[in-house]
Design brief:
It is built from 11 helices and 23 strands. By secondary structure, it is an alpha/beta fold. The chain has 3 domains: 37 residues, Single Sheet (Rubrerythrin, domain 2); 212 residues, Rossmann fold (3-Layer(aba) Sandwich), CATH 3.40.50; 175 residues, Ribosomal Protein S5, domain 2, CATH 3.30.230.10.
Length: 457
Amino acid sequence: MKKNSMYVCSNCGYEIFGRLGKCPECGQWGTFIEKEEETKKNIKTSKKSSGKPSRRLKEIETTNSDRIITEIEEFNRVMGGGIVRDSVTIVAAKPGAGKSTLLLQVANELARNGYKVLYASGEESESQIKSRANRILKDISSNLWVVSDNSLDNVLDDIEKIDSDMIIVDSIQTFTLEAFPNSRAGSPTQTMECAHELVNIAKNANRPRVIFIIGQMTKEDEIAGVRALEHLVDTVLIIEGESGEELRTLLATKNRYGSTGEMGFFNMSEEGMISIDNPSEYFMTKRMGNDLVSGSALTVVREGTRPIILEIESLVSDSFTPYPLRIGESMKREQLNTLVSILEQRGGIKLYDKNVVIKTTGGIRLKEQASNLATIMSMVSSVLDIGIPNDYVFISDVGLTGELKKVPSLETRLKEVDRMGFKKAFIAEGYGKNINVKNIEIIEKKNLKDVIQSVFK
């Protein structure tokens, strides 16, 4: 080992003098590699300050309203209302989730609106990209350029030649800069330096550009490379979805120009990523009139700022083993066990010899306490084998005492219930007086037993 050699963790970018077996930052083993010391002649020196005076904050004009709007409504929502013209966004997902597909659709949308778009790929050939485009795009715009190259220097030259307004880099871990010949593609040095170059291109005050960076993900579902990459960009988007299923969710885990946690829904098909503009219809089963099914209850969850009507399904069956099963496909087992205990103790329905299985239509995770009452009511419906009317919705948390609790954004949830044409909404007592909805009956109840008796008589 060389004296005073600097080593860097290839997983998180942690630097230290001397090699270690385990990284003290991320806890990974065997990830330290020697950091290449670049010669001064190879490193591009930054320009000196132009001496531009500082300005009062209140005098600076904002450009957030000047956004590029696409025809993909769910994408616009997650981005905060459109694409900011000098923004840098990372899109990451597992292989095959639809990263390249979605961005190729966005690129063609912008190209058809007169913007010059460059799609730079370090993974696929130009013919492979064209084959995907023929499959998912109805009309390929003449303003869409493609280059297949691992050299970011060549891509930067193409950006200037084309004078592109939008650049897609697929993926950042496959590109290199000539200024760092001793660092391989995907190393922390190459990844961060390539990202810095792209940020400088996007933030040029005289010629702002939109840049999307596709990032690879690790087995731990984190963006491959150094963690500082996420801090460098403006927006981080994650595409989630199980292989073999059509539903894809686009989640903003960071957004300097919009709400963090905003979620968009897409249907993955042969024609590409199809925006699900009304997810409330997607996440519940359509049933007509008196077509009642036991074990089903409706609630309203919030994904980001959007309320979504969601169907929760329960299956309660006799157990023939000493330890009944508790399976929550859409919730944590501890949460399911808590709700079962509340139902037994406060609702008077014994489940000690019953298997309980919970899932949601569409596979959305139950992360909010507002869905607890609907989850319990679906279990009651399954035990009694009595269907709940299709126009009933349950929006409340349930405490360990069996009392119904207030949930956040209740009026927003009730307005979505009203919009979708439901008739009755069960909520906690004392919170429905000042809510203005036209077509639904708000039923306030104090505790779980009152709700059970009201619904099942």
